[in-house]
Amino acid sequence: MDKKQVVTHLRAAKSAHIKWRSYAQAIVAGLPISEDQVPVIHTDCAFGKWYYGPGQKLSSLPGFQAIETPHEALHGIYMQIFKLLFETEEVGFFRKLIGTSKKRDDRREQLNTMLNSLIEMSKTLLAAIELLEQEVLRMNDEEVAELI
Description:
single chain; 148 residues; Four Helix Bundle (Hemerythrin (Met), subunit A); 72% helix
């Protein structure tokens, strides 16, 4: 694998993350998502499979280390969002259907706060990936070959 291929893989991983983030935004907006878009642990999403798989070849680079914490945090936030949306309550069907206005408003506010946190953490992650990409681009072909 040469430098161009490494950068291509990094960009594909970044795209996978952006797609994943759109699922979180969709679920908060009330749009349906498929089962394969349900939150998973950070090692099982498309980005995580790259990061903990082929991406490990870049693990000696300082920029690589800055990615793990925000990526893991994103999944934690998404899981909280998912649980808040789909937690089961012990109330009757009619009460659950209509809910209370205040409770719905509080839940909506919580969801929006969590989504904003997720988006900010996503920006942190994307910036870290960008720094790693720039780090790779500054390397010569021989240095990249040594990594892989």
